[in-house]
């Protein structure tokens, strides 16, 4: 039995972009909300922004004839400290509420989402004192269909 390809970044990004409470507080990149799944983020991406991923850890809950991956992934929100700190905190709070114990928040092709737990928001690393960040860590449990 071969496991289907596991792609969680795109569904997470799509869910975030579909939430008007989040996108109203974000900057723009190429006319779209500033939500990114690749690093480095483009230098002309607007603040505040959300970065999804990369996957921090991927494990598997044992199954004899089943694939049950567990994915741990960070969703970070960044802004310029002087202007955006309230929006950064608000977006991180919405992301937490949107995903914590909400297994129907995303659809992953080839898998059923059995559980999503969120922790945070906690401080996210920033390269300097001009930017502020908040991190929500998701643990996503899946079952291959």
Walk me through the structure.
With 145 residues, the chain is an alpha+beta fold. It has one domain (9-144): 2-Layer Sandwich (STM4215-like), CATH 3.30.2000. The chain has three helices and seven strands. The chain has a five-stranded mixed β-sheet. A hairpin with a 7-residue loop joins strand 6 (111-123) and strand 7 (131-144). The termini are close together. 30% of the residues are buried. The model has no long low-confidence stretch (mean pLDDT 91).
Give the arrangement of secondary structure elements:
Blueprint: H1 9-17, H2 20-23, E1 28-29, E2 32-33, E3 35-36, E4 49-60, E5 69-80, H3 81-99, E6 111-123, E7 131-144
Parallel strand pairs: 3-4
Antiparallel strand pairs: 1-2, 4-5, 5-7, 6-7
Protein name: DUF3168 domain-containing protein
InterPro entries: Viral_Tail_Comp_sf
Organism: Pseudaminobacter salicylatoxidans
Sum up the structure in keywords.
STM4215-like; 145 residues; elongated; 7 strands
Question: Which bin fits the share of residues in helices?
Answer: 10-25%
CATH architecture label:
2-Layer Sandwich
Strand content: 35-45%
Distance between the termini: 11 Å
Question: Structural class of the secondary structure composition?
Answer: alpha+beta
Question: Which of globular, elongated, flat, extended, rod-shaped describes the shape?
Answer: elongated
- Please name the CATH topology: STM4215-like
The CATH class: Alpha Beta
Protein name: DUF3168 domain-containing protein
Organism: Pseudaminobacter salicylatoxidans
InterPro entries: Viral_Tail_Comp_sf (IPR053745)
């Amino acid at each position: 039995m071969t496991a289907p390809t596991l792609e969680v970044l795109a569904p997470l990004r799509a869910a975030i972009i579909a939430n008007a409470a989040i996108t109203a507080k974000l900057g723009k990149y190429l006319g779209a909300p500033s939500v990114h799944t690749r690093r480095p983020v483009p230098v002309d991406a607007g603040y505040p922004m959300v970065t999804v991923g990369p996957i921090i850890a991927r494990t598997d809950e044992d199954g004899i004839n089943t694939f049950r991956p567990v994915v741990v992934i960070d969703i970070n929100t960044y802004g310029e400290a002087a202007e955006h700190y309230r929006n950064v905190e608000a977006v991180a709070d919405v992301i937490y509420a949107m995903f914590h114990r909400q297994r129907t928040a995303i659809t992953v092709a080839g898998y059923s989402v059995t559980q999503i737990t969120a922790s945070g928001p906690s401080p996210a690393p920033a390269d300097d004192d001009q930017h502020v960040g908040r991190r929500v860590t998701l643990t996503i449990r899946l079952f291959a269909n």
